[in-house]
Amino acid sequence: MSKYVAAIDQGTTSTRFMIFDHGGSNVAIDQKEHRQIYPKPGWVEHDPLEIWENTKSVIEGALQKIAGGLPSAAREIEAIGVTNQRETTVVWDRKTGKPVHNAIVWQDTRTEAIVHELAGQGGLDRFRARTGLPLATYFSGPKIKWILENVEGARARA
Q1: How far apart are CA 112 and CA 96, in angstroms?
Q2: E strands along the chain, which residues?
Q3: What is the spatial distance between Cα 68 and Cα 66, in angstroms, rounded to a whole number?
Q4: Which of 28, 41, 72, 88 is the 20 to 30 A CA-CA neighbour of 106?
Q5: How far apart are CA 158 and CA 145, in angstroms?
Q6: pLDDT digits (tens, 9 = 90+) for 96-146
Q7: In angstroms, rounded to a whole number, what is the distance separating the alpha carbons of residues 63 and 83?
């Protein structure tokens, strides 16, 4: 059996695991969708534990599809790349290993008031000279602030 490289692609609607051979051909793939949670208009959340379980499941599923299955196929993987949702934000409790709240998805807009508070007199471009980007609900910082201020016990645990 030849050596492989693999990729975990954890996206907005699903998680997939792909295994590629030395020539770059895809030799196995497994994919699983996860729930989209909409607690209020403009709010989008994911269950981090569901995503973690799906990630383990698709890795096993793809490995089962290549010759040898588990665990011999796993030993043939030399590298794994990971892509993720980037600005989707989840905070984990360091003592329990559990999330303190659902993940707040990149397109969620609940932090609009926080963003405008941060903008102050300088407007949404207040930090653009330093960061190259405007203030926006897209980014993780305001989401973390929201979690610390709105999830019972989050600030104390932080």
Answers
A1: 30
A2: 4-10, 14-20, 26-33, 45-46, 77-83, 103-104
A3: 6
A4: 28
A5: 11
A6: 999 999 999 999 999 999 999 999 989 999 999 999 999 999 999 999 999
A7: 19
Q: Are 6 and 30 in contact (CB under 8 A)?
A: no
β-strands 45-46, 103-104 pairing: antiparallel
Taking the CA atoms of 47, 51, 54 and 60 in sequence, report the sign of the dihedral they define: negative
The pTM score is 0.89
Q: What is the pLDDT of residues 23-73, one digit of tens each?
A: 999 999 999 999 999 999 999 999 999 999 999 999 999 999 886 676 677
42: phi > 0 → left, psi -120 to 50 → alpha, else beta; which? left
Which pair of structure tokens corresponds to residue 101?
A: 């709240």
